[in-house]
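Inputs:
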Amino acid sequence: MNCRRVESLLGDYLDGALPIEERRVVEDHFADCARCATAKEDMDLALEFLDGAPRVELPEGLVANILDATVHAGPPAGGMAVAGGGVMSWVRPFLQPLFEPRFAMSVALAVVSFSVLTWSGEKTLDRWQNTDLIAQVRTATTGLDRAWERGVAVCHQTFSTSAQDTQASDKGESASPDAGTSTTP
Amino acid sequence: MSPELREAVILRDLQQMEYQEIAGVLGIPQGTVKSRINRGRRDLAKHLRSMGVRP
């Protein structure tokens, strides 16, 4: 078995999803190939770290709710864990850009990352007590922060446009397409 | 770790999602999901090693 094949099987190997025969072949390869053995050790280390993370303290079903809100027009199953349903019903149109699939996932993951970050600072496990680690995670989250900021910028733009439309319609100018529907044939 | 790798690792190892689900959510093939998870875990391990953590 060559290295490329072993690499493609590594995930299933670690999940314990490989048939016993294939598992043995992979293990024989680790004995002969230092490079792949190191790759496996890296995976073990990463998984040990991730397993040590406490169950992330997200509102129940947050990710599912956000994705559900993206995919379906109706309210998500199990109630809106992101914010109060009443508030969301009128805020939603302004937040719509944030519910695009990529943004929704980014926001959800930013929350997850933040939880991991918080946990890192709690010093619950001696081994992972390391302020460098917190800095590393912070650096890693900046990409998502930027995605969030872009989303908020779009949101502001949408909101201010709507506000202008409202002001215009108050003056009877009917600049908004919605405001003008009653007079449109 | 790049956001692409990190989101794959988080969905798999923290959210315990199946490869197929992750592929659906991210809109990428399952093979890509697996390779991102592999690379993401190795990047994470590199960070940990650089901080002196040993298996």
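Residues 3-50 of chain B form a domain with the Arc Repressor Mutant, subunit A fold (CATH 1.10.10.10). Flag for discussion at group meeting.
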